Each structure stands twice: as C-alpha cells, then as structure tokens.
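Write out the bound-state structure for NAP.
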Amino acid sequence: MKAPVMKRWQAAEFGDPAQVVRLEEVPVPVVGAGEALVRVRAASLALPDLMMLRGEYPMVPAPPVTPGQEVVGVVEKAGDGFPLPVGTRVVGGARFDIGAGGLAEYTAMPGWSAFPVMEGLSDEQAVGFVGSFHVAHIGLHHRARLRAGEVVLVLGGAGRTGSAAIQVAKALGATVVATARTAAKARFCEAQGADLVVDLSAPDAAGAIDALTDGHGVDVVYDTVGGEAYAAATAVLARGARVLLVGFASGTPARPDAQDMLMRDYAVIGTLSSFRDDDEGTDTLEALSAMLSAGQIDPPVTAVHPFDDVPAALARRAEDASGQTVVLLAPTALT
Ligand SMILES: NC(=O)c1ccc[n+]([C@@H]2O[C@H](COP(=O)([O-])OP(=O)(O)OC[C@H]3O[C@@H](n4cnc5c(N)ncnc54)[C@H](OP(=O)(O)O)[C@@H]3O)[C@@H](O)[C@H]2O)c1
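---
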C-alpha cells in the first residue's frame, strides 16, 4: 500500500530563511509510543525557526531543516500512552529535532509537550502559548518567586516571549520595565502593559530605572536577549535580585560573573518552558487560565500568513520581531 503523503516546508541547506525553504511532498510521520499524529491547524513562526534555517541553532546541527517548533492541531492518531484522545484540539511541540517540524500538514507530537487548548484561545493565539506564556509563568512565579509590588525588567519586551512576560508580570502585580530598541517596539511594549520602556544601551536608561524605583533597582530580570543586554541589566539590580535566563536573541548567551553574584547578592536561574513536576504544571495551567478569564493576558498576534506564504512570513519576521507570527493551514485529509 502506498504510504500517505503530505506537504511540509523544509530546507536542504542552511542560508537566508526565506530563500532556502521549499514546500516538499513527504511521507506523513509514523508515530510511536507516547506520540500522536496531529493534523496541523496553525504553526507558530519564531526566532528559533529563523536561527535553525540560518544554521545558528544548536538542536539542528546539520540540514535538512524542518522548521516549526509549536503547533495547534487536532489529534488524528494517538500512539500507546499518548495522554489525550483522538479528536482533542491540542497545542504542543513538533519534532523539528528529528526532521518532523510543524510547518507541515501533519506532525508528530510527544505526549509530554501536548496540552488541550485553553478555553477562549483562538488557534492563532494558542499556537505560541507554551513557548511564551507557560515559560513566563514558570520563570516569574516558580523560579523567581515574584511577589506583587516587585519590579521586573523584561529584556526584549516586544518579542514573542518578552511580550508574554510583560503581561504575566503585570497580572502577578509587578511593576514592569521593558527594553526595546525602536520607538515602534517601545509602543508595542507599552500596549502589553509595561510601565516604563528603555533602550538599555542609551546613557539615560539606568537613571530612568532609578527614578521609577526610587533608587531600589529591579528585583527580577527576564532575559530573552543575553549578551550585552544581560551585562547591562545586572548593573541595575536590587539586592536579592533573581535573573532568569530564558534565551539569547542576540546570538550571544549571557555570561554570569560568579564573583559579582556573590558580592552583590543575586541569583541567576535557568528557565525552561517544561514543568518540573505535575504540581507545577497544574498550578501554572490554572493560573494562566484564570488570567485569561479575567482578561489579564491576551496573546498578541501581530501577523497571520497562509500556509503557502511561508517564505514571506519568514522575511517579515526577520524584519519585525514583535508579538506572535502565525501560519494558518486549511483543513486537509490524508491522501
Ligand atoms: N527557555 C525557553 O523555554 C524558551 C522559550 C521560548 C523562547 N526561548 C528563547 O528566547 C529567545 C527569544 O525568543 P523570541 O521568540 O521571543 O524572539 P523574538 O520574538 O525574535 O524577540 C526577541 C527580541 O529580542 C530583542 N533583541 C535584542 N537584541 C537582539 C538581536 N541582536 N537580534 C534579535 N533580537 C534582539 C528584539 O527586541 P529589540 O530589537 O527591541 O531589542 C526582539 O524583539 C530565543 O533565544 C529563544 O530561543 C526560550
């Protein structure tokens, strides 16, 4: 019997993302125990996709590249032990690491990464939710133990993960400072709820943070940028601050200085989007669901592209990394 086929965007070589991706016909993934075959309805397109197509992403050391890390779709077939039934509308990870990325009609989704879509979220809003809102709550609440009234500094506030962190930090009762390097991104950060937006490389940035906090400094840093931004952020810390390492959009990881941490009494904490245990997962999902119901968080979708428009979507995302870029698929049937 002929194996079923489908369409998937992929690249045979590293290079300019918009130039190297091609829409190919490939076999539908065969899923094993603990995985599901998911019919994709929407795929998120984010910085890691650009990085992996350029050859800058450690988890994809060699071509071919199949971008698309997070999808929303419907469980079509569930392998043994997959935790959700056929027909569930799920959000979760795709196996880009083994050549089965989510910019495709179907993808394999591991059970540990799959969540039923929360009530009230459209496909477009749900598709980046794990890699942006889950990680924001895990970092700010579980890792940094953020308290209402504390000051949070979000590095890369306009980005997909940064904008979610602004919203979640506000919902947790914090005062939020965000960084942005253009006026348009500064306005975007303000629209997400930031109380102050600074360009950390500008000479007056530390003074503005000092004025906002009456000289106290920031209690928590949410670092999605790394490099020089991390170094600049550690100059404005309050005593007992917690610095969350979330990502390195600058291309250069943060380089914590152990002596500085000791002498100035702050902690640096790695932050992942996956839960350490079931209790943590339940707590985060309930908290985010309550924030959604109360209208405290609202995933900011800034661009929606049809499935055949992926090269243009990649080019646009490389130009403007604000909020969430989504690729929407038309319904398909296995052929
Ligand atoms: N830990 C986790 O589980 C987790 C989950 C999701 C993402 N991440 C990581 O978090 C990082 C950010 O991802 P994202 O999807 O939020 O990215 P994004 O949407 O592209 O946003 C990144 C932001 O960083 C700022 N930035 C500063 N310097 C930059 C530079 N040299 N190049 C590009 N952007 C720069 C940009 O704002 P300005 O231009 O205004 O500075 C941009 O808006 C990535 O490293 C990603 O892998 C980690």
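---
Residues 278-293 form the longest helix (16 residues).
The mean pLDDT is 95.
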